[in-house]
């Protein structure tokens, strides 16, 4: 298997990778097998708006080795703007598929981020569901900026385990910033899985398939956490639609 060159299409201010789901999965496995220091951003509407509002964060995401269209609005946006049939490449699908592929192909995986309770639940889950998986590390970092000594210790620990895929669950934009800072320091493929980990281990439920296909997965999440997500969705979803319409019809700011 060879690494397939990436094509990108601009959605708002982000360069979204346009390949089918299987191609992107294969590329992540390739990067991991060859211990290529790299990172993958899994982009949704929230990330698009965060990047649009913050040029520094935009550069971090656009410097990633791949930016997958996690949200259905992004996949449909590519179709609407460019006429390209684009698969949705969601973290909630990538995570279990990568775990299964890693188990089958003998890749070493490391989980970074989340609370200690979440990491304990993750370790128990993967031992049960992926008994042959070589899960070499589970680490919950402190909820503050790391000291230089702590950062060096984490890099050393990941290298010691021989991890080839590092699943990063810090939430957006923290996980993307961390992965960017670790590129060239950690010889593994890092992938930001955000909210996919709690869903995988059963802490949260995923929307039914029909809601996913109708681009309503965000609404299902909102129903579960209305207080936390109301302000975010009211702002990001409306702004995304407004900016996408401007892009479609070439309206300048």
UniProtKB/TrEMBL annotation:
Pfam family, one: Glyco_tran_WecG
This protein's record includes keyword Glycosyltransferase: yes
Molecular functions per Gene Ontology: transferase activity
Highest rank taxon of the organism: Bacteria
Keyword field: Glycosyltransferase, Transferase
NCBIfam families linked to this entry: wecG_tagA_cpsF
Protein name per the record: Glycosyl transferase
Protein's organism: Cloacibacterium rupense
């Amino acid at each position: 298997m060879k690494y397939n060159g990436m094509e990108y299409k601009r959605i708002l201010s982000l360069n979204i990778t346009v390949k089918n789901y299987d191609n992107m999965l294969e590329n992540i496995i390739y990067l991991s097998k060859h211990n290529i220091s790299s990172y993958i951003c899994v982009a949704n509407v929230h990330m698009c708006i965060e990047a649009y509002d913050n040029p520094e964060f935009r550069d971090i995401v656009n410097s990633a080795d791949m930016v997958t269209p996690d949200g259905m609005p992004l996949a449909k946006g590519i179709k609407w703007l460019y006429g390209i049939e684009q698969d949705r490449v969601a973290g909630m699908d990538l995570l279990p598929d990568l775990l299964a592929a890693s188990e089958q192909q003998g890749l070493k995986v490391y989980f970074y981020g989340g609370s200690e309770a979440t990491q304990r639940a993750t370790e128990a889950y993967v031992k049960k569901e992926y008994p042959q998986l070589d899960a070499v590390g589970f680490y919950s970092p402190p909820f503050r900026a790391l000291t230089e000594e702590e950062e060096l210790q984490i890099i050393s620990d990941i290298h010691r385990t021989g991890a080839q895929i590092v699943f990063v669950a810090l939430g957006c934009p923290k996980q993307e910033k961390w992965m960017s800072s670790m590129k060239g320091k950690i010889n593994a493929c890092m992938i930001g899985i955000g909210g996919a980990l709690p869903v995988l281990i059963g802490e949260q439920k995923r929307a039914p398939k029909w809601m996913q296909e109708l681009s309503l997965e965000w609404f299902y999440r909102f129903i579960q956490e209305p207080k936390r997500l109301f302000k975010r969705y009211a702002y990001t979803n409306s702004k995304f639609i407004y900016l996408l319409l401007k892009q479609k019809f070439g309206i300048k700011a």
